[in-house]
Records
---
Amino acid sequence: MTPYESECRTDSRLLYHSGNLSEFVYEMERAESVLPRRVNANAEGVEQGLAKLVLTLIELIRQLLERQALHRIEGGSLTDAEIERLGTTFMKLGQRMEELKVAFGLAGEDLNLNLGPLGDLM
Amino acid sequence: MHHNEVVREKEYTLCDLLDRILTKGVVLYGDVTLSVADVDLVYLGLRLLLTSVERAEQMRKAAPLRLAAGMAAAVEAQTQQ
Amino acid sequence: MSPLYMYAIVDQPALPLPECTGLEASPLLIVAYREIGAVMSRLASDGLQPSESNAWQHESVIERLLAERGVLPMRFGTLAVDEADARHALERSYAAFVATLERVRGRVELSVRVLWDDTQHASPASEEKEERKEELAPPRPGDGGRAYLLARLVQERRLKARRERAEGLAGVLHSHRARLADDSVQQVLASPRMLLTSAYLLEHHQLSAFQEAVRELSATYTSLRFLCTGPWPAYSFVMACSPAARGEDGEHDSL
């Protein structure tokens, strides 16, 4: 570590805070798609990374379709039978997604992608 | 300051720094890449190259063979399940 | 040949580089194109982790440069094949880089985050608290398709109402501070409790007035939690000159 680097680190960047720093860390970890603890994890392999990518895209499509359906319900353009059928499909899709997440060891994680300058996908 | 406070401050500052340098700043892409919060795909995302189209082809052929091999193995493993 | 790790795009390319080393203790070098340059160092290893040490090394090079000239900090992990590639990148976006350097020269970034506890900001009805627990949990299966979708509809409406409350409150907070800065960016509800995530572009003489404003806001809004960090290089204000952000990467293949 160069002298400047250590100087750079120890300069306090924390100008002001009210409340608990760990609350902020917790919320940042929920908000951000790139996290210190994940960067340090070495248990996940490329395989899981790919699964996560695929599942994220499927989840995006599922959410988009679901929102479309809700929009149409609000607009009154679906029959009761259609609503029932759509609802059951989405429920099953949601359950299946959870099963897949468990199978790939991604249970409880937020699936999301950071698209660089375009921000997060979802 | 308690020891705990100091530890938290460093932890927070690192968190803040990483957020800044990993998701902001000038971005120069050769190929379009996606980054996700996994070690290996962050690694993939880190191979951001400034290249022209021809050079991108050269680099793809020459460079990340290790990573490409890993991905091919992973895809194969998936399809065999 | 080993790649070049890029730290920043700078002005005054003829100015001597600071006497510090970059990642892997490699010496810094600069590639110039007209009035700007790219500061880099040669990377021996095949790939790079955003470890604590590497992150701070990246940051400290940028801050050394910032002490003496205008700097556009790069995202961590940007590599160039060789000097010619770096020069090509400088040439391609030359006008944008020059304009952005002009905008951020002599300025730093302060970050402000605000947490809220949204149970405090709801309407006073006592039912709201119970409902809020269910607000974020998805409806349970076993009730039939129609029931599921109707429950989702209610959930979406509540989330929308909450977002509107958040945006209103965040807007008030943000505008107090934005007036004191040259520029600002904000994001509302990055997570359920993170009411506001924002960054402000400030000249050095504006820093203390700004921090005072944060303290005052914190004293006024006692149910909110404020956090202010910095000064940082203007990472949040340089993204617009990225070729991808400007829709200019059409000449490259996509994945």
---
Amino acid sequence: MLDNHQGQSAIELAIFGSILIFVISLIFRQGVSGGNYMRTQMQATRYAMSKSFEMAYREKPGRNTATTMVIEDRLSGDFGNKFGSRDRVPLVVSGSGTYSNQLFYPTDKDDYNDWASSCAAGKCDNDVLPHYDVWINGQRFSFLTANFKVVDFPLTQPAGMAQCGSNHPTDSRCWDPTCANGVGCVVLQQIVGNFKNTDYNPAGNFDIHFDGTDPVAAAGVDKSLILSNNGQLSFFWQWRGKQAVGELSTKEGYDVDGDFYEEQIIFSTVDGATGRTLQAIVIDRQDGDLDLSIDGRQPNKKVGLLKESQLFAITSNGTVYRIQEGKLYNLRNDQYIRNTNMNEHVDIVQRVFQLSNDTHRFCNGNIPKNNTVIPKWDADPPDNPVEACNNCFLGTNAQMTCLNTDSHSPDYLKLYVRSRISNKAGRTWFTRTEVIH
Amino acid sequence: MLTGQTMIESTFSTIVIVMLMLGMVKVFFWVGSDLAGRRVAHETTLISPVNMDINDNYRQIRPAFYEGQPMDASTINSEIFGPNRLP
């Protein structure tokens, strides 16, 4: 209590009123942020659901389960800056949706044939392949997470393929000269959980790295005994060999290309004379724009959104904030007084997305593919947002969304997504006045 | 102490406090109605009955299903004093 009691109420009001205003602004700021986050989250989920529905309606299995990631840099409430908010808060949300109508109709031989026909016509219809849709500040990137692959199997032992049981650490496939009545064939591998009875595998069920040493077989003891006692404790999984003879089962996955990852078999063809498998058409999850299967088998590899992110601001003639005051018009008796306070700059937010393979869907060499003339449903990718290719830090490319297609660069297949966001927030007041004569 | 000093200060403070409280009510109302309105619109459209028609189905799950609540920050446009709005 002040000694003379003068201004007591006013001082209390000033102190507690400012605290109250601060609290109100905090609530408001949280409300804006919460609203933005909820809106983006629901949009991501609904976008995924709508894409799954649309693709199912068109009987395209690529997005039976659609996944979407939305990234937006939105201005946050800033009550301490009289020039308006400048801070951008990144919102990163993901959504997924499954329309179950076509769930049990996965990609099959007919889909592959349609895809091959469309590619032969010059424009691949990739909607039969799984996608990952990413929206970054309004730019849509439709990444493939798998691709079709045609693998031909040799009918004689090729020079680069080792015999089963020897050292072949870079290729899981090996040559078994005893199969198909002694003419020989390729042995494919698949990963199975550990169990007591091991199936046929001339390469060694527990030769994890295919260096020619099966630690279980090398023990010189009955396999079943080791597995039942100690072996099962030491190994969580094992390789199961499959001779490339006859049609490969579409219900199982085999590593047909030797990269230590299994592929999904679509169909296969057989050599009529010897019964050996001639060719397999598979969906390879390591051949899409994004290889989301990266794990310890591919050490130090990265994929997807990288941590690096930068924000640049470009202003008009060095002006960040524009203030205009004074007389605007003077027509006869009418005068308008204006007072304009507004931001006038462009924020460039750069995000980096690491791709795994150059599928030539975004760039054709150094030239970005421009699909704006192709109807949205048919374009691949629809409305290609990549504006420049190869040298992404060239002066003319510095503010464009760019894919580094230089295979000799350490930044090979880095997609620099540059969002140019104009900030012209502000206010303009016009006050009409009349001159009294 | 001047005569009526306390009365004048209290009256002034009361008026300011009432304005602050009105602002607080507006903020509370807007924050709650914006979040709840979006959630209600989301749930309502998702479970609304549809015919087996692509446009009708798409209406349920369209991404742009909701417009944010207007703040109506100025009291003259707000509904605090009733539904009468300026044209």
---
Amino acid sequence: MITVLAATLLVAGVSAVLAAILLVAERRLVAYGTCTIDINQGARTLEVEGGGTLLASLMANRIFIPSACGGRGTCAYCKVKVLEGAGPLGPTEEPLLSKEEVAANVRISCQCKVRQNVRIEIPEHLFSVKEYRARVETISDLTHDIKLLRIRLLDPDTLEFVAGQYVQLQAPAYGDNPDPVYRAYSMASPPSDSHVIELIIRLVPGGICTTWVFEMLKEGDEVLLNGPYGDFRLSDSQREMIWIAGGSGMAPFWSIIRHMDEKGIARKCTYFFGANKKRDMFLVDEFRAIEKKHDWFTFVPALSDPAAGSDWDGERGLITEVVDRRVEAGGEKEGYLCGSPGLINAAIKIIKAKGVPENCIYYDKFE
Amino acid sequence: MIAQTAGAEGTSLGYLMLILLSATFTDNILLTRFLGMCSFLSISQQLKSAVGLGVAVVFVTTITGALNAALYKYAIVPANEHFGVPLGLQFIVFIVVIAGVVQLLEMLIERVSLSLYYALGIFLPLITVNCAILGACLFLVNLGFHRNLLEATMFSFGSGFGWMLAIVAMAGIRSKLKNQYIPLGLQGPGITLIITGIIALAFIGFSGMVQLAK
């Protein structure tokens, strides 16, 4: 009996002493006092408690930097230019930054701690990014693995955005996922209704956020999202447009075309939308209706793998092959792409070969 | 042949050097005991990270070895004598100490030297589960070095240093292998294990040259 007691006490004692030392050390060593973060040459100045990551400190002050992985240093979205006070480049940042970015003082803000006063630069439009509390109004199936979420904004209750921009939806901690993570989804609804947004979400097997949307999220649930982000939007030029998308890459174009329809923006435009089988195709009737209404818009849906003898009357083949067949080389054109990285890389290649200059190709690559 | 037993009268500098030599070479913890193989295999691809991990291991082994020796001498052994607490308690105590010290070191280094922190950064937390460190602490007690804390420190440092030597050597060899033809089935861990075996064979040649006292 006394042996057991002594053994327990010994282990507990050692653990307690270590824990005490660690606690004291955390107080003494990790505390950096109050530090200031100067944003865009004094446009805003924040006072934060030192020791936290730059991303967390900015978020606590309601400045939202795009970040998809929840501060784990994997997505590399939360890049911020730190002019002063960032300290040496960390080993978790190095692999995520190119040489040019390192030279330009770009840092991964979730891996970079605020240990002293820092001066940073962020794109002006990030100031208008807010966090929104919202309610899911409806969840409807577009295909067997793609859902349309209609979300009403509660607080704040209006979200002003440009057609083509995206928001980050927060998937809360659940199951094996200990921290909330954010995933980017383009608005599929036109900006004319600023109280409601629509998101198109495709199930990624094993994906943290999409699994949550497909298996747990219900109509009437409250969600958190922040935004708007992104430069993907109609350019100011009058060039003829080629849109190429696959899967949930449909979203920004569904927003842009309705915006153009509502505002009477008439620009010659061909939309190539690719899917595998007929069961992966969606919104065809809606786009056909708009196509009928306007002579400047052409809709080209294509299936790469239509079942033999199916009644599919659209194009067949990989979407890049269809673009290759239907688009004439030359002319003043510009490209808008949205979809998987594979699709985008292939699409860039093909429209470059058609003579579209690189600076006239716009895309959001969602990984 | 050098042979020496621990003198009860104290520790000479020569004996300390002997402990260092034996812990580093003749009883190399990686090449003769095959401890700490997992990080050895995975981090030995690049010289730079191998050196980083090596330094971290030396650091942590030395400090935890000394601490654990003191705990063994002043807490576990007396508890064993007075209350019959089994000496096997060392396993729990040692691993708790290693985990705690690694945490502490991480905070301390971050505060004191940011560049060292970044050099060791991702390797420090990994070390908590490096069996070479627990192994060094256990061998130290087995060999009786805990009775003299200076000897214990020297032995721990030697063990860590030997491990570092092995991983740095392997990283050097693997960087040479990069441009060589290696059969597909042997690439990666396969060829690394074979090379480790060959180096270990060479190290067996050292065995018996220095006899550490029990």
---
Amino acid sequence: MRSSYQLDHLQYLESEAIHVLREVAAEFERPCILFSGGKDSICLLRLAEKAFRPSPIPMPLLNIDTGHHFPELNEFRDRRARELGARLIVRKVEDAIAKGIATPAPGEISRNRLQIPTLLAAIEEFQFDACVGGARRDEEKARAKERFFSFRDAFGQWDPRNQRPEVWNLYNTRVNPGEHMRVFPLSNWTELDVWEYIRKEKLEVPGIYFSHNRLCVRRQGQWLAVNDILPPRPGEEVRELRVRVRTIGDIISTGMIESPADSIDDIIAEVAAARVTERGARADDRTGEAAMEDRKRLGYF
Amino acid sequence: MTTTPSIEILRFNTCGSVDDGKSTLIGRLLYDSKSLMEDQLEALQRSADLTGGGQINLANITDGLRAEREQGITIDVAYRYFATPRRRFIVADTPGHVQYTRNMVTGASTANLSVVLVDARQGVTEQTRRHACIAALLGIPHIVFAVNKMDLVDWSEARFLEIRAEIEAFLPKLDAFRDVKFIPISALHGDNVVDPSRNTPWYEGPTLLRHLETVHIASDWNLTQLRFPVQWINRPHRPTDPKLHDFRGFSGQLAGGIVRVGQQVLVLPSGWKTTVREIWTPEGIEPEAFCPQSITLVLEHDLDISRGDMIVDPDQLPGMNTDVLARICWMHTKPLVPGRKFLLKHTTQTVQAVVSSIEHRLDIATFEPQPAPAELQLNDIGEVRIRTSRALIYDGYHTNRMTGSFILIEPGTNATVAAGMLRPPLEPAKLEYTDFVI
């Protein structure tokens, strides 16, 4: 007999997320898990392991490779999938451009927008009726209103004014052919919860989250990693800094933060004391106050 | 086995009329508890410089969607997160318009506590009564009446007591809350929100945040009656470990009670009895598990159990019936008329259902039932009789929020059209074979 029959905050969030994942397995025919190798999807994968053990995770992993990923992230992604014996499907923005599925605007360098048609094409190719993702409501204002089970119409669009009411833990999972659901088991998690869970579960995360030396270029008020696809322009300030990432997007939009944090404990202390949001470090979210809402309407993650 | 948990989660919702200052209150809680980040403050500052004449508008923190910024109203449920060293908080910000009962029900369905805002100048309005009524219907155990804009009534204790007395006069009719608190605040200036106010020397109670941090929520879950709705059957296909070849587990989230290894359990609707052999929890294999843990049960006998079945304590049977009474909140623009057919999702079971009659419509401002209405319209709350294609295995909503709730789904459009709360069963489940043991 235990002295207390109450869950602490991580156990509560874990139970809730596992319930959502099992609901996906029970009610959808062709679900998949979006796995990037980032910290949120690492937690998601761990929760999926726990939800279904001793059975293997009963759905494939899907990743949209923009071609601008940090190489260490892709290596981690592939290795983790191998360790779990999971089926990993990768679809590349590059290939989508070649096939005419995604068309860059003249001079458009960012692959952010082009992920959308690539993802929707993959959903169509594999007839996925549910895509489980690691997005959290605390990340951004538009996400704060999203449901655990977020309905997408035949064009993959999100209609924030026409969301299904979500009451108790009773999720309406029904979709018609061609429509699908985005499912977010980590909806109620915060950035701090994610790191505390990584610590509790002793989860491995890509090294890029920890402090390391890197050549960085100053652009639009943030430090970006110098790379083949992001060479410094003449006159730009380049410095070798002790940095890490707080959130990972593409190479060309992910701000590196100066930090000495080289352990999970350090990161937790840093996040707990942080005075800017994690998305504050991503150029793609800063383009406008409604930037995320616009992309989500079109079918963004 | 875990030790006493250090940090709990409290879920609460805020409700008030359009100008009662809900968004300002949440903004104030986030701001004063230092949960707002610099980039969020900068964005606020920018919009303040552009539109607000330099004054930061705390309400802008929560008003997320573009349509809202354009109309200046909150149109949907938004969730906010903040933490203090004592607790984590999940806030459902639900709008206060008459026509948005639907959203309030949504936000309230998972809340432990409701904060109802009352404008000190207006006093108790029809909206206040509606909000209290919905919190009561949704079975929220704790309620706080935050009497806001006290600065605009010169911090008058008499005014505060007058409002308090008026609320206390109608609360017994609702007969619902485990505890009720009244707190005089100014969300705009921060008095008694996070820090105690110097303007209310006559008020000796806690600040709002202090109350949220300390209110006793440990007994909000039903830990007395074992309820385990089977969600997913766990059968490893071609397991690498030969020991798992015959593994057959039943996964789900405990909706009530505590389950222990060696305990005799009963499976509904079949009525078979068996014993719990193993409990897989997220922490590993454990001798016991409790609500609301997500677990996997391994049973002594190889029974034919499927999703939608419920595993219970044989001495504490739930109701089991195809004919039930329930209160529902109608959430769709197309009105409900008797005779319509729906899909009904209850625990892990989805069945066909027909609303055979509408018994009454509840006036949520006067709490009076209006008998036999022809239909229920969007945002109406009413009592209905429902017939289902398979028996529901259930408890009254006020006994167990998880086994007493359901949603109605319109076939074809798949719209969620109603949230339902079951009336207590008239009798426990009747079993065909009461002593049948394999």
